[in-house]
Automatic annotation (TrEMBL):
Domain Alanine racemase N-terminal: 8-228
Modified residues (N6-(pyridoxal phosphate)lysine): 36
A GO term for molecular function: pyridoxal phosphate binding
Protein name: Pyridoxal phosphate homeostasis protein
Alphabetical list of InterPro entries matching this protein: Ala_racemase_N, PLP-binding_barrel, PyrdxlP_homeostasis
Required co-factors: pyridoxal 5'-phosphate
Pfam family, one: Ala_racemase_N
Function according to Swiss-Prot or TrEMBL: Pyridoxal 5'-phosphate (PLP)-binding protein, which is involved in PLP homeostasis.
Stored NCBIfam families: YggS family pyridoxal phosphate-dependent enzyme
Family the entry assigns: Belongs to the pyridoxal phosphate-binding protein YggS/PROSC family.
Keywords associated with the record: Pyridoxal phosphate
Amino acid sequence: MSTPAERLAAVRQRIADAARAAGRDPATVSLLAVSKTWPADDVRALAALGQTAFGENRAQELTTKAAALADLPLEWHFVGQLQRNKAAAVARTGAVVHSLDRSSLARALSRAGEERGRPVDVFVQVDLGGAAGELAERGGAAPADVPALAGEVAALPGLRLRGLMAVAPRGEEPGPAFARLAALAERLRADHPGATEVSAGMSGDLEEAIAAGATLVRVGTALFGARPLTSPRVTPVTGVPPEVAPEEV
């Protein structure tokens, strides 16, 4: 079994190789270690190897780990779908939110940013479709709605728009989907020059994402190993998971 150091080195090498193959400087691509479901000790082990950016997809897990690891200079990211009533708790951790997909959430996060006295950094999540081309399969705003939503985000005083995020659709090659994301990102930069980042690519498709211009890849399995199969938590009233997140792997 490989060690954390070996896995981290392997992922970093994949990023560097993919960037060079695309004619890019490897330093233009950042690595986000998606530590969801893994204990704080595993995060601490990767942090000891120089990894500083970590992502979670549930608000409670994010706040718990951030508190447990407060002695480390970590940068937290929230990569799951976020309920408005959890926006303030996520904002208090200082996390970058990758999954802003609607106006109501934008307003809730902006209020939280204003209350803490520092804007919340956000990505607008784009829905690139499902296996049958249907929207909402992976979460996010419809591509046609992204310019207007980005404009709302940019106008809110408690937010800072960093760019776009997306998850590749299931059941099809990721390259064409990431190319669609790249076209949207180019349009976004024309309207909002400061929104230069693209959060895309995971353990299985980071090379395709980097080829399409991703500046940040979200990697979990390749760094931490396969996650244990667990039943999702459900609410007693609705019987559905309280936070449904894109699969960051």
